[in-house]
Amino acid sequence: MLSGGGARAAYEVGVLKAIYNGKCPAAAGSSTPEVFSGTGAGAFNAAVIASRLPGQFPAPIEYLESLWADEIPQEGLMRNNRVFRKRVDTAQFFDIPFMWRRPLKSWALYFGDLGEVMPKLFGGSAKDLSIWNDLSPMQRLISESVSLGVIRDGEDGMGPKRILRVISTEKGSGRPHIFKNADFTEEIGHKAILSSCALPMIFPPVDIDGKEFFYGGLVMKAPLDPAIEAGSTTIHLIQNDPKTEQLGNAPNALETLTRSVAIALAATLEKDLDNRRRLNAGSGAQRVVVHRHRPKTVLGGNAGLLNFSRENVQAYIAAGELDASQHDCAGNACIL
Prior knowledge:
alpha/beta; two-stranded antiparallel sheet; 336 residues
């Protein structure tokens, strides 16, 4: 179970490395994972793993780590990472090496951005910050790294079981929408992952069959119920936020919004986990073990959410692997 968190989802890669490589004591003796559910960037991580066959080279986790460590921090010779591109990036004209490498491309992007942004500014969308961010880099990353056919075959096919659940929020109703393996068609599959990653007010919502969807983490911080409904009996819940009391004060509007949502959803998650403890203590429900993994501090400090620098990503992966290798069930309030 993988939660959202922008660049901080690289922490999940480190935890997964420890689990898959036998370094996590909580996963000792476990069978190969069969169910992957996620919200936000966690949905991307889950989809990448579910779209790789166990014997494929490179292995699922190695491939996911290569995406985060090598691909996501930078897109070719561009100034941007492979998640989003800032529109009307005037600073690029002061980046001489960039201008020298891609003079025509930079001018085309700049004036194309003006054509995209100006009508929206004068059309009443000036307060919508998402008009300044272009999600096409993430769209390309998802389409290049996620095999939809393999996902569709993962739940009902003849090969190894790889059940995938991706959660998005339906705009307007505010209801969670759960995309299942069969939903990952060529028409909407990549859009489903993109929609789960679309942070409100930062990135635009994604249109799927006439409805708009955005960040799944707003309605489901960690998709516990979809994983259990898919048949999970042992769950590794990976969160990218520390305990609520360790969040501290946020220095800017984005972090304030993110932490406010995190606190609200953390309370809901705790209720879900308490309910699972009660069900485990009863006699009528299937017993479900939940191992919780979370960082000890706010990853990347106050600027970690959208900082996809190589240094940040590598630090998050290393932190996740270290924390998982030192996992303490009592300290993490795991459900056993």
